[in-house]
Every structure is written in C-alpha cells, then in structure tokens.
C-alpha cells in the first residue's frame, strides 16, 4: 500500500486564528497596539501643539476649522470668516463630522483642542494596523509594522500641517480594513458608513468597499454599501454642497471635468505622480500589492491624479494620510498570505528601516530640538494680541490668525480690504521692522491703511496692531 504524499501547508490567511501561545502572548497581542498608539499620540500632539505655540500654525487651515467647530459649539452653522463674511464651510467641503468636536471644544475653547483631537484620531489608527500585523505575523514583527506605520510620511505630513477633517477618516478606514481582512463584513460596513460625513471624496472609497464586499461573496451587503456610497456621493456633490455654497455650485468640480488630453497620460504624468506611488509602496517592500485591500486606495489616487491641481499630486500636506492605513493594512494582510517566514521577516525589516531612514527628513524630527525652541516673535505677538478685546472683529495675516480665532471674529488680511467688511482691528507682521516673515503680497497693502482710516496703535518686534481711527 503506497503512502500518500504529505500535503503542502496552505498559507495562513489574515482571517485564520493565530495559534495560542499562552497568556503572555495574548497580553502582548492586546497590549502592544494600545501602547504604541499612546506613544504616537504623545509625539503627534507634542509636534502640533508646539508648532502652534511657536506661531507656526496658520489661518489656512487651523483657523478656518476652529471657526467652524466654534460655531458648532455655539449651535450655529459652521461659518468661517477667514473664508469670507458669512461663508458656510459646508459649501466648500462636506464635513459635518466636525460637529462631534463641539462638546469637547465647548469645554476647552482653544485651537489646541482641535490639534490634540487630531493627534488622538491619527494615533488611534495605529491600533488596528498593529493588531492585524501581530495576528498575521508575530507580536514582535507586528509591533515593528505598527512602528513603521506610525512613522509613515503621510501621517507625519498631516500632523505637521495644522488640522484637517481627514483625521476622522484615518481611524475609520483602519478599523474598516482590519474587519475586511478578517472577513467581518457587517462590522466593516459599519465602520465605512460614517466616512461619507468626513469629506465629499470619501463616498468613492465607500463605494469601493461595497464592491470589495460584494466580490467577496456577500452580495446583498456589498450591494447595499456600494449603493450607499454612490447615492450619498451624488447627493453631497450635486445637492448638499451647492445648497450651502454662496455661488450655488461645487467649486472643485471643474478640476475633475476639465479636459486635458489623453486620460492615461493625465493620470500618470507628470513623473511626480509616479514618485508618490513609489513612496506609498516602498515602505511595504511592494508586498502590499499582493493584497486585494490595496485596491481600496485607487479612488483617492484617481481623484488626486486626475485633478489639475499640482498640490494633490505629491507628498505634501495632508492628502496622503487616508492612504497610509490602506497601504499598511494591505501589507499586513499580504504577509498573512505568505508561507515564507524568512521573507516576512525581511519585508518587515525593510519597512522599519525605510521609515527610520526617512525620519530625518520628516516633521517628527523636530521633536529632537527645533520644536522646543522659542519663537523670537511669540512673546511680542502675545503682548500685542492681549490688547485686542474678546469678541472683536479683526483681520490678521495668515500666521497670526489662528492665535485669535478662539475669542474674536477673525478675517483674513489683506483679502478683507477688497470686501465691504471693515473690521475694527488689523493684526500684521512686518518683516521690515523685525517681524516674522510672511507673504510679500500681504505686506504690499500696508501703504493703503492710513487712507482707509486705520492708525497704528501698538507695535512689538514688528508685530503691528491697527485700529480704525473713528473708534
């Protein structure tokens, strides 16, 4: 009787249970993700808070979002005077999820509340990424992937550039994709549902999530999520935003409908776009491409690369933060599909090494020293701003605007000079008198101020406060 040939072990999928190795392993699996999240929260919060305290935050966008959250906290519509008198931010981008910050802001009415909340939301996403990575590899390797994720350039760029609504999308996507990898379809759908309240492009991602669930065999649920994504996206872009917009339309739609030649060329060129793809996949040793979860990054990449706005194509600002959980969870899922332990270890080593090598060029490096250096203008600016009464109407330059939005009605200088609005106060920084550097076109309007009725009432180290002469 012939002996049957031994069967080859099948690769372990991410949904397969990891064999129990005792209570110590269980504690490491459950405790490490939360500890990592706590550490990254401390780092993210320290970076963004110190930037604000050293006058390196901006009215565009921290001041704008604080005005919206402040309005929600006062049970008003989310108007931002920095965008224009009476400008409802829901007519610019659709992000009603910001209202969830209102109770916290009512208790702590300061821009630091927004920055701290963003740090917490981004750090929270470390939990599902690390948890899935531990499940598909080992506690040590999974923790290493969590570290690489927390240090990823997309998250760091988001932390460094003030506050943005996409901070809510990052943990929602992370928990959703973890559930998709584990085939917890209903829970994944529940995590995906609030994404349509974060920003108007995310219904595209929800649609892709629905298609993913449908193709995975859950047809009824997948079809429902897909339809929800499509219908909510159309309703938001074609109805909701135009209804709130002062001009009655969605301002950014022209970048999607403008014809610029061959579609493939538009998506892939200039080479900056290919560089972004390389930067996204390199930290995973390109193994993220082995997981179908990576397909959920396509909607975000498609609208960014299709746009005619170059700011969307590269690595700057906050635009890639929502891609980080997708890429790293796809990486963790792909590692769970491999049956080559040595390759898994090498891939994790590449991921961690690439994140550490990039760190000197990314914002968290400032925590080693520069973030804590006092701004030469901070004390002078605070002395000048102390003369502005609470509730005053004031126009301020970009770098000083978010210092006042918690207690005053702040407009943007010099744009306000071209409107019918005439605030009582103006706050300006003049580098010619030793003030902090700012945009030259903002300072070009200074000679007009006397003729408009403004007189200089206070100055410290180039930080100037003007007031209408008849007040």
TrEMBL record:
Pfam families listed in its UniProt record: DUF2079
InterPro entries linked: STSV1_Orf64
Keyword Metal-binding found: no
Region of interest: Disordered: 1-29
Protein origin, superkingdom: Bacteria
Keywords per UniProt: Membrane, Transmembrane, Transmembrane helix
Residue spans crossing the bilayer: 35-53, 112-134, 225-244, 277-298, 310-331, 343-364
Protein name: DUF2079 domain-containing protein
Gene source species: Streptomyces yunnanensis
Upper lineage: Bacteria, Bacillati, Actinomycetota, Actinomycetes, Kitasatosporales
């Amino acid at each position: 009787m012939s002996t049957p040939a031994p069967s080859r072990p099948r690769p372990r999928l991410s949904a397969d249970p990891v064999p129990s190795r005792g209570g110590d392993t269980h504690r490491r699996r459950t405790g490490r993700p939360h500890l990592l999240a706590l550490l990254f929260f401390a780092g993210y919060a320290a970076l963004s808070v110190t930037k604000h305290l050293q006058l390196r935050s901006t009215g565009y966008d921290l001041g704008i979002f604080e005005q919206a959250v402040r309005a929600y906290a006062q049970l008003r519509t989310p108007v931002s005077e920095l965008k224009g008198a009476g400008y409802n931010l829901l007519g610019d981008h659709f992000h009603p999820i910001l209202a969830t910050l209102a109770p916290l802001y009512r208790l702590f009415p300061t821009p630091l509340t927004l920055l701290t909340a963003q740090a917490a939301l981004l750090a929270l996403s470390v939990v599902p990424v690390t948890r899935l990575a531990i499940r598909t590899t080992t506690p040590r390797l999974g923790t290493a992937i969590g570290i690489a994720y927390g240090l990823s350039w997309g998250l760091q760029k988001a932390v460094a550039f003030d506050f943005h609504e996409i901070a809510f999308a990052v943990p929602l996507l992370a928990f959703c994709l973890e559930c998709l990898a584990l085939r917890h379809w209903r829970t994944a759908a529940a995590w995906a549902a609030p994404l349509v309240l974060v920003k108007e492009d995310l219904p595209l991602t929800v649609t892709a999530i629905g298609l993913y669930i449908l193709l995975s065999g859950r047809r009824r649920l997948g079809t429902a999520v897909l339809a929800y994504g499509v219908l909510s996206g159309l309703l938001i872009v074609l109805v909701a935003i135009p209804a709130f917009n002062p001009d009655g339309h969605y301002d950014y739609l022209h970048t999607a409908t403008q014809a610029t030649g061959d579609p493939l060329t538009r998506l892939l060129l200039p080479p900056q776009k290919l560089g972004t793809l390389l930067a996204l996949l390199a930290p995973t040793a390109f193994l993220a491409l082995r997981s179908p979860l990576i397909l959920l990054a396509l909607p975000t990449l498609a609208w960014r690369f299709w746009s005619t706005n170059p700011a969307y194509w590269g690595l700057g600002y906050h635009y890639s933060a929502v891609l980080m959980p997708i890429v790293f969870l796809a990486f963790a899922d792909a590692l769970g599909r491999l049956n080559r332990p040595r390759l898994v270890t090498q891939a994790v080593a590449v991921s961690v090494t690439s994140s550490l090598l990039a760190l000197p060029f990314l914002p968290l490096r400032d925590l080693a020293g520069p973030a804590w250096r006092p701004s030469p203008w901070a004390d002078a600016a605070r002395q000048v701003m102390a003369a502005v009464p609470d509730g005053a109407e004031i126009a301020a330059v970009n770098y000083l605007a978010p210092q006042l939005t918690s207690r005053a009605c702040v407009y943007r200088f010099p744009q306000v000079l071209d409107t019918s609005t005439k605030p009582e106060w103006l706050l300006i920084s003049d580098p010619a008198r030793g003030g902090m550097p700012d945009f030259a076109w903002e300072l070009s309007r200074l000679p007009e101020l006397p003729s408009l009725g403004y007189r200089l009432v206070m100055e410290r180290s180039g930080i100037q406060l003007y007031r209408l002469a008849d007040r």
